[in-house]
Amino acid sequence: MLRNGLEPWHLLVVAIVIIMLFGSKKLPDAARGLGKSMRILKSEVKAMKEDVATPAAGPEPAPAEEATARTIQAAPGDAASARPVPESGATAR
To answer: What does residue 54 show for φ and ψ, rounded to 5 degrees?
Structure first.
């Protein structure tokens, strides 16, 4: 049954159904939004890898007057998505 699981005409049928469901005007906006999401995800993963790569010799307690939030950088060309991230212990909902 799944020997020839995905043939070229299957992709054509799927593309036609997607165009009929969403319309040709909304597809570029959806692709643009998906691209922005992928750039943000990539920058988040990079930031997490950098956080893990720092040596954990011993955390120094931060003074109360210097409590600053780490800022996650926006994806290139998307300045509106940068947002401050609170330090550990605080959650935003």
So the answer is: -70, 140
